[in-house]
Amino acid sequence: MREAVDTFRRDIGVKPSCEALGLGRATYYRTKASPGVEKESSLGAPNPPPRALGPEERRQVLDLMHSERFMDQAPREIYATLLDEGHYLCSVRTMYRILEQESEVRERRNQLRHPVYEKPELLATAANQVWSWDITRLLGPVKWTYYYLYVILDIFSRYVVGWMLTRQESAALAQHLIEATCHKQAIQPNQLTIHADRGSSMTSKPVAFLLADLGVTKTHSRPHTSNDNPFSEAQFKTLKYRPDFPERFGSIEEARAFCQSFFSWYNQEHYHTGIGLLTPHVVHYGLAEKVIEARRNVLGEVYRLHPERFVNGPPQVNPLPKGVWINRPPSE
Fold it and tell me: Which of 104, 116, 180, 258 has the highest CB neighbour count under 10 A?
């Protein structure tokens, strides 16, 4: 084969000659470097390693492992049994290698296969299109006592459309809150998507049946992925980082009074950076353009009186986002 390449290389070169003969150039150069040794094995099928078992020996090992005596034993047990009887066929690793080549090695335990959860991608371009809801615990008066705060949030306006504080977490209570909030906001069939994590109340059948009856689409976060429900998580952080948020509540009445005051402040007075420094109430009820125009007039008047103070031109009002995403796709 090397001599044929030597013959044609003068006319067409080494690379075309090797390609025409089906010979690798590295093989040609390697055999050419040792002219006294013709490595015929590299030109055809590779020779098996000298320490490898022959075909008959491999068949003997495989038949032995398939025998009724050893068919339910592991290769290590087979190896030890044969040694005690004065026989040696091959190593334990070789037994496993033979079984693997016959596709007979796999996990024997009935292990749980986790399904692949699809990443939720939700877009809201107006209020009452996508709601996010979650439950957090508030510490009670003594250790191991909690109150459960249910909160439903509109992700476009950040407006808390519904909340409830109870002594226990229950699918029936969640069903009642969602139904009452949908009626209060006059939600029509096929108008709304409600997103939540995979808590027991969120994935319960009563809630699923209610949403189906109301014509509301439900979506869920992936397991252990808090970023799939960012707006509810951020709202809970705002709640618990308030200066007057207590370490513990003395009673459920005290906790409800605090939440009543907080959510009134949050909806009516809290200027939210994610919605152009507007309050959730202004955005949710369609007053944003009016407020933005008033702010634009104020800044325009200031620029008219003192243009030298604005080196980059007239100051601009923070705009209201055109859309709010949960997990924006890379193409958007």
Answer: 258
